[in-house]
Automatic annotation (TrEMBL):
It comes from Thioalkalicoccus limnaeus. This is DUF4351 domain-containing protein. Residues 1-33 are annotated as: Disordered. The lineage of its organism: Bacteria, Pseudomonadati, Pseudomonadota, Gammaproteobacteria, Chromatiales. Pfam families: DUF4351. Residues 29-81 form the DUF4351 domain. InterPro entries: DUF4351. Residues 10-33 have a biased composition (Basic and acidic residues).
Amino acid sequence: MAYVTSIERLASERGRQEGLQEGRQEGRREGEAQGRAALLSTLLVKRFGPLPEAIQARLGQATPEQLDHWGERVLEAATLDAVFEDH
């Protein structure tokens, strides 16, 4: 069995903690994007009726910035296609 110094142990623990923190942050970002997509989907359905599969897929693959942009447009767009124009 290899000898592990206290410095190596501290470095290993620090690396593990940093990895856990990065994992939590990534999980939060993914959760926020999923939440935004779900809310936008609900708003779109209420405004325009059932969504085509292509739109549902697009929402699932969108960046948070795209979702925010579309979310703002849903309030003024006359059609479903108008929500997604230019993006």
